[in-house]
Design a protein that fits this description.
This protein has 191 residues and is of the alpha+beta class. 50% of the residues lie in helices and 24% in strands.
Length: 191
């Protein structure tokens, strides 16, 4: 498990004073496997700092799921739409494994952001990291065949994290069938 202080330092260093302020408004919460931290089309009012476990962002339409991203210990997740506009989340965040997260209400973190330039700098770094991940996803999906997409995914996440993610979610993320993914993994000797 990572402490809130350790999670904050992953993206951009902050002072112990900022960490203490966030610790005062954060709640350590457990989410069992397959539970939702955020539900599509519902209100989201918190930012989640992942202390332990894995989750995925997914979009559901006509009873089909589309995995958009994965997040692991040390990552920060929320609904950007809810954060920015206050509207309902446009995707869900689902626990892939049992998770421990520090949950911070939007109102509390926005209040801290309004008075703490150091935390605003941290927020900009987090947003830039999210843009990087989004850009990388477009590159992965736009680069050739299934093997090259899988290779790009391997280069972006440690193998032990990928081993914990069900194949169906990886296949959704890569926009390939599970059968194709199994063949590609076999070719890498990681089946």
């Amino acid at each position: 498990m990572m402490s809130l202080s350790e999670i904050l330092q992953v993206v951009h260093p902050v002072s112990p004073a900022v960490v203490r302020q966030l610790e005062q408004v954060a709640t350590l919460r457990q989410y069992p496997r397959r539970s939702r931290l955020v539900t599509q089309d519902a209100k989201c009012e918190s930012v989640f700092f992942i202390s332990d476990g894995l989750c995925r962002g997914l979009y559901e339409k006509e009873e089909k799921e589309d995995t958009r991203w994965f997040a692991a210990k040390g990552d920060v997740v929320t609904s950007p739409t809810a954060w920015h506009t206050g509207e309902a989340a446009i995707f869900s965040i689902e626990a892939i494994t049992d998770m421990m997260v520090y949950k911070v209400p939007f109102d509390d973190i926005k209040e801290l952001l309004a008075r703490c330039s150091e935390l605003r700098d941290w927020e900009v770094k987090v947003l830039m990291e999210q843009l990087y991940v989004l850009e990388r996803r477009y590159v992965i999906l736009g680069t050739g065949d299934a093997r090259s997409r899988y290779e790009a995914l391997l280069n972006g996440r440690p193998q032990e994290i990928l081993n914990a993610i069900p194949l169906k979610h990886i296949a959704q993320y890569l926009k390939i069938t599970q059968e194709t993914l199994s063949r590609v993994r076999k070719a890498y000797g990681r089946s």
